[in-house]
Amino acid sequence: xxxxxxxxxxxxxxxxxxxxxxxxxxxxxxxxxxxxxxxxxxxxxxxxxxxxxxxxxxxxxxxxxxxxxxxxxxxxxxxxxxxxxxxxxxxxxxxxxxxxxxxxxxxxxxxxxxxxxxxxxxxxxxxxxxxxxxxxxxxxxxxxxxxxxxxxxxxxxxxxxxxxxxxxxxxxxxxxxxxxxxxxx
Length: 185
Ligand SMILES: Cc1cc2nc3c(=O)[nH]c(=O)nc-3n(C[C@H](O)[C@H](O)[C@H](O)COP(=O)(O)O)c2cc1C
Hints:
alpha+beta; NADH Oxidase; four-stranded antiparallel beta sheet; 7 helices; binds flavin mononucleotide
């Protein structure tokens, strides 16, 4: 797939087939992720990959309960209180991108890796979605312990992956709003 086509086609996918994401595909995505630029070439990203179904469901349950305790938005609370709402949408894989240590650019660096991963997923016909709702839990002591995330790693981007059940139509974007500063013509 052309890069610009992948950029246009990538959409948050929230409905997945149960089929596993194989090692070779995941390996290709992780190698795409690490091609991202990073401040002073620090390459601070580390990855936790979860494919064990029972573990995905447990993280989803605990992250949801954790978030519900903090959530201020009434709209989001309605979702979180719904017993049928799975924060990972039953996706068969989760990749948590974490920074190896606190740095002023860790969010930028790991977000760029996450975007590479999501675009590479799109190229392979996989769906993906960044799950911000799980971030607080993954950074908590309980979340770190459950996933075996080392003390010095800071989880930044939890990305779910899987084969989409259906094509997701994009809702389009507003036109770029730009203040141009050019040479006079
Ligand atoms: C930082 C971040 C956090 C997000 N958190 C969630 C989330 O917790 N749950 C969810 O369903 N989608 C989440 N999304 C996906 C966005 O809702 C989605 O990207 C946005 O609505 C635009 O839609 P598109 O990706 O299909 O173009 C998140 C996206 C980003 C970048």
